[in-house]
Amino acid sequence: MRKAEDILALKGVKPTAVRLNLLEFLLEQDKALSLKEMEIGLLHMDRSSIFRSLKSFEEYKLIHSINDGTGMTKYAVCAEGCNCELEDLHYHFYCTSCEKTFCLMDHPIPSIILPKNFKMTDANMVIKGLCDQCNK
Fold first, then answer.
1. Per the count of CB atoms within 10 A, which of 1, 13, 62, 90 is most buried?
2. CB neighbour list of residue 97: distance below 8 Å, 6 or more residues apart
3. Do 13 and 19 touch, CB atoms closer than 8 A?
4. How far apart are CA 113 and CA 58, in angstroms?
């Protein structure tokens, strides 16, 4: 696993204590998290510090946000080499039982041919069902 300090340095982000702690926390997760879930997991940090760091991370393309249809934006660390370009987009899976959202990094969103003068700027593909743990 990549270290938080190395990732911040690679992306040119100043390594403050809040950013390091938040990124380390996100790297430990196996699912995407909402701001509320981060607040619960990082009791020593206030909501505004977490939110500001998340916005910086998005700006520097360390994380991506996910709209999984729950009404709460979720966040996940980008894969190594990701630049948050259209070719980096991938499917997400939302478990309707445990309510976790997972990045399916090995399943890129296929490119589609759009009508003339249409330009894709984003795509959000969410598959809903039961994750491996809930399907047992």
1. 62
2. 130, 131, 134
3. yes
4. 28
What residues contact 84, with CB distance under 8 A and at least 6 apart?
Answer: 61, 64, 78
DSSP 88: G
Confidence of residue 37 (pLDDT cuts 50, 70, 90): very high
Supply 4's token pair.
Answer: 């938080």
> Using an 8 Å Cβ cutoff, are 38 and 22 in contact?
yes
Residue 20 pLDDT level (bands cut at 50, 70, 90)? very high
Which domains are seen in the chain, by residue range? 4-129 (1.10.10.10)
DSSP-derived pairing of the beta strands 90-95 and 126-129: parallel
- Mean pLDDT calculated for residue range 109-132: 90
